[in-house]
Amino acid sequence: MSDVRIFTKPGCPYCAAAKEHFSGNDVSFEEINVIGNPAAQEELLKLSNGEKIVPVIIDSGEVKIGWGGG
Question: Which of 23, 30, 40, 64 is within CB 3.0–4.6 Å of 57 for a Cys-Cys bond?
Fold first, then answer.
């Protein structure tokens, strides 16, 4: 299992940028699509303190909400 998990939704440009960043730096990650996945949505809301925002990135245990670049 990867040390990086990214909660995403289809069509999100910030999600795409985050995935491109990790892929471009040869960092493997687990992508978790929250659409149609109630368990993932619940986990996302816990991690983001109730904010409905993607991406939420967990990198080696550190939670990052949103994407503003590397």
Answer: 64
